[in-house]
Amino acid sequence: MTTQTQIPILDLSPEIAELRPEILAAIGRVLDRTDFIMGEDVHAFEQEVATYLGVKHAIGVNSGTDALVIALRALNIGPGDEVITTPFTFFATAESISMVGATPVFVDIDPTTMNIDPDLIEAAITPRTRAIMPVHLYGNPTDMTRIQAVAQQHGLRVIEDCAQSFGARWNGQHTGTIGDIGAYSFFPSKNLGAYGDGGLIATNDDTLADTARMLRVHGSRKKYHNETVGYNSRLDTIQAAILRVKLPHIERWNTHRRAVAQAYNDALQNVPGIVTPTITDGHVFHQYTIRVQNGRRDALQQHLAAHGIGTMVYYPIPQDQLPIYKGQYPTYPHSAQAAQEALSLPMGHVMDTTLIDHVSRSVQNYVR
Ligand SMILES: *Cc1c(COP(=O)(O)O)cnc(C)c1O
């Protein structure tokens, strides 16, 4: 047996190798100050990220899931309310809606973008609909012009799930700053990842920002003056310190991700049975996801695994088919098909072209 390269779907070690001294110094400064909860770096990061995103308020929280939940609570969405979202996403999207006692209403995806199809939203609106929660899946911005148009016409609020789209832009504007609230995740594998859990709420609305800040600290604006049942959901100071080291690199990293996607597309776009993603403006390629047609997705995944190449299926089960929701929804044909065909290849913001060539050749060799 020859030793073969192991290529994980995501390798964080090159980034850590580059930034380790700065990261350790940043953590050291937190240790010196011992301001572990809501410390100096949290406030500084909130300001820096607000400036980067071009938004009035950035509020650090404990995770992307909490950002979604607190966003819904800030909009006073709860039992009896419906929120329209995509079935083709990570569970946290729908889970956040269920967590506040509201009902997720799914609308099928556009098979080209893999995002919620704005043309189908209107038909799903009922008197109970309060909000639309688009997800910028794989880092590909949803058509926010059309989402905002439908929302405004029907008096709905918009919460953008930006867990996969930090740095992505729609018409030059950052995702998460176009609707009423943006919710971001700093899970380590996301485009801007912490070295633990973390999340963020972005909004231009002063009242929503004030409510979100109150909710993240046990529903209190003033210590020991709790107004409502809130959360213990703060961004850790150590994670904020790490994120401050990483934020200045995000534009370069996202540019690299687009170049990796372009290199994959160049190698794979004429391979029969493979559909490559469109490189739209502002797409930040959290994942590089191909469609494998003719029922060959799982076999290709196994072939690549046998050649040391890690891939993932995001997502194998649409939300409406999960045990928690099964039987409560019709099926959504485009989401169902995407769950059968989607395959995400190794992607990262520090990725060598030789790795891209190796992965592309392995895909070509199998499919041909
Ligand atoms: C990762 C993710 C979340 C949740 O973020 P966490 O920080 O892990 O809680 C929500 N929605 C989507 C689409 C995600 O990919």
Automatic annotation (TrEMBL):
Pfam families named among the record's database cross-references: DegT_DnrJ_EryC1 (PF01041)
MF annotations from Gene Ontology: transaminase activity
> Gene3D superfamilies under this entry?
Aspartate Aminotransferase, domain 1, Type I PLP-dependent aspartate aminotransferase-like (Major domain)
Cytoplasm as a keyword of this entry, yes or no, is: no
InterPro entries referenced in this protein's UniProt entry, alphabetically: DegT/StrS_aminotransferase, PyrdxlP-dep_Trfase, PyrdxlP-dep_Trfase_major, PyrdxlP-dep_Trfase_small
Q: Report keywords, A-Z.
A: Aminotransferase, Pyridoxal phosphate, Transferase
UniProt KW Hydrolase keyword: no
The UniProt family comment states: Belongs to the DegT/DnrJ/EryC1 family.
Protein name as catalogued:
Aminotransferase
Q: Which organism is it from?
A: Deinococcus seoulensis
